[in-house]
Amino acid sequence: MKKQANLSCVMLVQQLEPEFWIGWDDVIIEEAHNGNIRPLIEELVKRFEKDGCEVNEAYGILHDKDLISVWNQDEMKNVEELKAKHIHILIKFGKGDTLNSLAVKAGVAPQYLEKAKSGRYGYDNLLSYLVHAKDQDKHQYFPDEVVTVSGEEYTSVYNRRMETWVRGRATKEAKATDLSVDYLVSEILAGKLTKSQVLLTNEFYRVYALHKRKINDAFDTAGESKSYQTIADLDAGNFKKTTLFIMAESGAGKTVLSKKIISILQSVALKKMEQRWDYCLTASNNAFDEYNGQDIIFLDDIRGDSLSVSDWLKLLDPYTISPISARYHNKMGSAKAIIITSTNTPSEFFSIAKGNFHEDLGQFFRRIDLLINIEDDKFHLSKPEKAPPASTQFPYVIKPPSHYFHFDGTYHKNKALDMVTKTVIRNMQWNKKKPVTQPAKANVTDHLKK
């Protein structure tokens, strides 16, 4: 059997219940449980020195604010609870003993004594752990909560070493992220994490900061995979895209309504299909630079000339997904729902699309499922319809749009939201299994009607 080495330091960690302290006076343990831990530390030092050890330093702290994650069966999720109250006592020896011998002297089982890790910073790491100085994700105790029985006062040690400990914390966090990044990448590829979740979660954000390229590559790959799956579903007739055009004066609530619609669609998708829908809020210029396969594209206050006629027609086509122009490389416009907001009417909006030279505006109108016009907290809804055949008596005259918007009715906000939700559910076929069939191609345009 390998001979045990004498230890130069040891950390005792134990709950403050009498049954865990062999041969101890219950009064000392109960006093420590109530907050006065000095008598317990002093007694431990006496026990060690009585049996031949030399104690150079002795520090202790009561940990009563540590948290632990436990499964809550009623809520069906992990919740944080307080750990049992426990004490950490750090002893540094001038002359030590073996782990088993120290455990006998201390009156605790050997597993409750922690050896310092090998290396020059082993004892220093134990010193810092008393207050969790290098563990930002744990409760941060104050240095004056540490009781000093022997050696330099802990507050002095803390102020002298804290700068080094902070650097050590950064190193420790960096090493921890090496383990966490693989977990993050796995969750991203499985579609369980969005970029906003990563950036808004402190733990994930630190990992992202140190492994930005690897994580962004995972998001790009996940987005590419999602886009091609969407294309396959669309080609199979499993759904058709939904396009909403919301028009109103500035400040009338276009953006607020759009975000409410997005929130509802995300909830419905999760409830009905267990799908986590994400959305992309685009910029006015280079609108698709940030798009990466999100289920909803939110084109907030975008101008009609942000895209070409060709790109608008491809993006809004309910039965086809095609590449859309972007600054660095083309993107697949593979969203399931598209929301456009503007202060202009659809006619004014699409008439200034790049490359529009007397284009039939009806071909844009027929691709829009619902036109929502907000006025004085009233919501006027219109739907596209095919216009009557235009007269051919004067062929040199510009023809009116082949489709126009037929006024459907005026509704309060909740009713309008309900109609929008039902439109998306119908287009996504969440209530039926019959595939969407593509209608026969027709020439299409529009007058703007209410």
UniProtKB/TrEMBL annotation:
Boundaries of every Helicase superfamily 3 single-stranded DNA/RNA virus domain copy: 245-342
Entries under Gene3D superfamilies matching the protein: 3.40.1310.30, P-loop containing nucleotide triphosphate hydrolases
Residue span, Plasmid replication protein origin binding domain: 55-151
Domain of life from the UniProt record: Bacteria
Transmembrane segments: none
InterPro entries: Helicase_SF3_ssDNA/RNA_vir, P-loop_NTPase, Plasmid_rep_OBD
Protein name per UniProt: AAA family ATPase
